Structures are given as C-alpha cells and as structure tokens.
C-alpha cells in the first residue's frame, strides 16, 4: 500500500488514479508476496549461516522492489491502452 501510494505521488497522480492503480496492483502483489517471502524466510533462518543472513535478506529485498517496480510499470502500460 505504501509503495503504490508513494509511487503515485512521485508520478504526480491524483487520488483517484492512485486508488485505481492500487486496485490493479494489490491482488497480484499480495499473491506474489505469499508465494515468495515464506520461502525466502525459511531459507534465511534454516539454511543460511548467520553471517550471510543480512546480505541474503537485502538481496531478496532488492529483487522484491524490482518486482514491484515492474508490476507498477505493467499497470501503467495497461492504463495507457
């Protein structure tokens, strides 16, 4: 919710446009979140040595932000059509 709202503000969108983008992005992002993060956290806490946990989590966070950015761009392309 924070990502979509802040991206909408930075893109100069109004409240209605942000709300529309949120409704387009929320369900796909939430489903992906449920698929990805439990697995990542399981790997992080069960398999990852303690000295690599923070770098692993940070790398996964960067990849997640990239996914959200691509989802945001996909929603923009959908609106433009």
Automatic annotation (TrEMBL):
- Give the record's keywords alphabetically: Membrane, Transmembrane, Transmembrane helix
Q: Does the keyword Membrane apply?
A: yes
Q: What is this protein called?
A: Protein SYM1
Q: Does the keyword Membrane apply?
A: yes
Q: How does it sit in the membrane?
A: Multi-pass membrane protein
The entry sums up its family as follows: Belongs to the peroxisomal membrane protein PXMP2/4 family.
Spell out the subcellular localization from the entry. Answer: Membrane
Gene Ontology CC, one term: membrane
InterPro entries assigned: Mpv17_PMP22
Q: What is its main location?
A: membrane
């Amino acid at each position: 919710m924070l990502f979509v709202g802040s991206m909408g503000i930075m893109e100069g969108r109004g409240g209605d446009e942000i709300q529309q983008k949120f409704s387009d992005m929320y369900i796909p992002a939430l489903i992906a979140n449920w698929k990805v993060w439990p697995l990542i956290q399981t790997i992080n806490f069960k398999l990852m040595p303690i000295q690599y946990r923070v770098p692993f989590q940070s790398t996964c966070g960067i990849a997640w932000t990239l996914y959200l950015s691509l989802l945001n761009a996909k929603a923009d392309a959908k609106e433009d059509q």
